Each structure stands twice: as C-alpha cells, then as structure tokens.
Amino acid sequence: MMEMYSEETPKTTIKQWKQQIQFELQGTDYNDLLYKSHEGISLLPFYSSENRKVTYEVNIEAKGMISLYCSNVQHTLQRIDFWISQNVQYFFITLHYSENNWGEFLSQLPEKGVYFIDIHYLNPSIVQKLSSLIKNGGQRIFICNDCINEFLKKGKWVNSQVYDLEIVKNSISSQNPVIFIDTALYQNAGAGIIQQIAYGISQAMEYFKLIDKCNIINELKLYFKVAVGNNFMFETSKIRAFRQVAESVFETFGYNIKIFFVAESSNRWLSISKSKYNENYISLAYESAILGGADFVIPKNSMIYKKNTIEIDLNNLKQIQKIIQNRKASFLNGIYSFEAISYEIAKKSLVLFQSIEKSGGLLEQVKNHTLQRKIKEKAQEEQILFEEKLQNINFKNQFFASKEEWELYPFVKQKTEKTLVEPLIAKRLWENIEKRQLKK
C-alpha cells in the first residue's frame, strides 16, 4: 500500500497513479486489489488527498500502566514501591475481598503514583465507605466502578439496576469526577470495531445521564478501557476514531470533558501456541495502541500461567516503553490512509450510536437481547473467516501447549446459573481449532 503526498509533490497526478497500477497489473482488475473488511470498510492499494474527508489530529504520548490485583494489602504496597523504583507512575488496581482494611491501604499509597481503583468486586457497603475516602484522594486516586460491564459479563446485576447505578452515581466525586467504561468485553466477545465504539459510548452515556441530572459538575473525565486486536491498520484507526466520536458526542453537553484511553491487548486472537505467535501479536497490538493515541498501555500477562515473574513483567513493560520512545500518535497526523479509515469508522460508529440512543439506549438493547444478537452475528462471521484461513494448515505435534502445562483453563467455561439476560461471553478465535488438535 502506498501513500501519495500529492499536495507536496504534484509531479504525478492521482489519475496517472491509477493508470500506472492498472498497467502493471497486466489485465487483472484494479478492484481485485481492494481488501474489504467485515466492517464494510475497504483498504485501498494507495491513498491520496481525495480519500481524506476530514483532518483529525491526535497528539497523545502514551504511558505504561501496571495492572495489579490486590488481595493482600502489604504485598501490593511492596509491588507498587518496586514499580515506582522502575519509574512507573500509573497503576490500575483491582481490589479483592471485602475484609481488608482498604482505608489503610489508600492512605499508604505512595505520593509519586497515580492510581485507578477498580472496586466492582467489593460489596456495596464497602464501596460506599471507600468512595468517601477516594474523594479525598485529590488528583491521584480515581474510582473505577463499571457495573454495566459486570451486568454484561454475568447477565445480572450485583444487587439491582437501580441500586448498582446509584452506587456508581454516589461514588463520582464532585471535586474530581471520573466515569470509567470498560469496553474490552465487546472486543473479546467478537464485536466488530464499529460496534465496540458505538456500544462503548452508549455505555458511557448511561452513566452520564445519571450525573447530568444532578448538575454537580463542571469538568468530567471519561476513561475508556479498550482491547486492541491484530489488524494494525484498523485497530490503530479504531482508537483514533473512538476518540473523535466520543469528543463530538460529549462536547455538546456544555461540560469540560476530557477523554482518556487505557489499552490492553485483546484475548480474541491469542492462542495456546508454543510458537512466537502470541509475542508478535501482542507487540503489534502495543504499536496499534500507541500510534492510535491510547493514553495508557497495560502489559499483557500470560493466558495459561497464573503468575508472571518480575523478570517477565519487567520485560513486558520495557517492550512497551521502547515502542513509546520510537512511536508517537502524532506521526500519523496527516497520513491519508489512517485519516481516511478513521473517518469511515467514526462515521459508521456515530450512526450506530445514534440508532442505539433512539431505541432507548444501551441497557434497553441489552434487555431485549439486540446487543447480544448483533455481537454474536459479528463473532460468528469472524470465526468463519478465521477458520477458512487456517483450514489447510497441518499443525505439528506440540504446536499447542498440552493440558499438563496449563495453570489456567484456556477455554470458555459453561455456566448454568440463572440470569436476567444472556451474558456476553468472551471467546478466542483459536479455541475450536485447539480443541480439535488436542483430541488427536
């Protein structure tokens, strides 16, 4: 694929480029070179100023962020101290188990760090106590409570819709208001890029409606957690389009709204392969996130092993930091191909978002199972395309890690528990193939 900088070097016209390509194809139809994704967006052989509908600059410089699961307070504080000694400043911390002294934990967090505290595992009474503590954390402690994400995962509310949303509303500080939206489940369940953006913004809108009625804020921060897949051009453009649509939607409300993206590699294309496949895929996802304009990038942990060693964690972080040193989102400003693809994604996403809102919003789509059905259709379409590409490959013995090597079960677990709605199920594309191979 070629980029034409026709504005700076007008020696060859766009028409002449096409004629030259058609000549070199020696009879093959030019349209055969077009790659059309299952999003309905074409990837062209070359791009010029004709393809650029709008210029949208992204000047974000990404930062590494460490994700920690905290069940032991002192152990987690020690790990935070270690990472701060490695010049890490940003942490995403999920709190487990209600019996810990979380107030003491928050008060002991080092001053040098910035902390995003995910509290959805805790019971409501603990959440309410923590909310008042976190509100006093100034600009360095942010509460993250995405109960809609949990509803989508489990198919039922922790308590009830009214109660769970009320807890979210009460946890939003008027001094430093933050709404956290986890959209990674959409990607991991097989949603298309356009669906991920539209559903993610509709999810944010459900929370925004809660606080907009209160009129207690002048400034609001929206943090979107996104999963990044393996299609470099489209995934990079996805994040740029996501930011563009989010800004255009929320700027109309009159608040000073700042939008941030926390990115991680998607599980959707990961395999239990023992080759370099996962490493290459994750590295490409990091690049897409950074060039796409993610504010924070979280290292990816192993899929079948419980814990990484410090050495592995350090290497993962260094890999991200190295990419950050050599890549900037601003590098793609003005590049016709990315601007054209981002525009197409943004346009389609905005149309879908508006359709969702007209039909009653995201939760209404979940309750009538429209969202689940649409994602399932897109996931099945992707699964068929994926398996068609691999159908003639003869995988050698030991290509996949054997059951004896697993520490974590890598396949979808079937649950029979009663739910209010059909939950969204994250499933990797490789699972069907891996199961067949492991039976041989």
Structural class: alpha/beta
* Number of beta strands: 12
Q: Strand sequence of the main sheet, in spatial order?
A: 8-7-6-5-12-11-10-9
Q: What is the rounded distance between the termini?
A: 41 Å
CATH homologous superfamily name of the domain at 63-348? Methylmalonyl-CoA mutase
- Main β sheet profile: 8 strands, parallel
Shape, per Cα inertia axes: globular
Residues in helices, as a percent range: 40-55%
Query: CATH topology of the domain at 63-348, which one?
Result: TIM Barrel
Strand content: 5-15%
How many whole angstroms does the radius of gyration measure? 23 Å
CATH architecture of the domain at 63-348: Alpha-Beta Barrel
> Which H/E pattern describes the elements?
EHEEEEHEHEHEHHEHHEHEHEHHHHH
Low-confidence stretches: none
Mean pLDDT: 87
CATH class of the domain at 63-348: Alpha Beta
Q: What is the number of helical segments per DSSP (H or I, 4+ residues)?
A: 15
Q: What tags apply to this protein structure?
A:
440 residues, alpha/beta, TIM Barrel, eight-stranded parallel beta sheet, two-stranded parallel ribbon, globular
Give a description of the structure.
The chain has 440 residues and is α/β, with parallel strands linked by helices. It has a domain at 63-348: TIM Barrel. 45% of the residues lie in helices and 13% in strands. The chain has 15 helices and twelve strands. The chain has helices at residues 14-24, 73-85, 102-107, 124-135, 147-154, 161-171, 184-188, 193-212, 232-250, 277-292, 310-326, 336-358, 362-367, 370-390, 431-439, and strands spanning 2-3, 35-36, 42-43, 46-47, 63-70, 90-95, 114-118, 141-144, 178-182, 219-228, 256-265, 296-297. The strands form three sheets. An eight-stranded parallel sheet has the order 8-7-6-5-12-11-10-9. It has a two-stranded parallel ribbon with strand order 1-4. The two termini are 41 Å apart. The mean pLDDT is 87. Keywords: Isomerase. Its EC number is 5.4.99.2. GO terms for molecular function: cobalamin binding; methylmalonyl-CoA mutase activity.
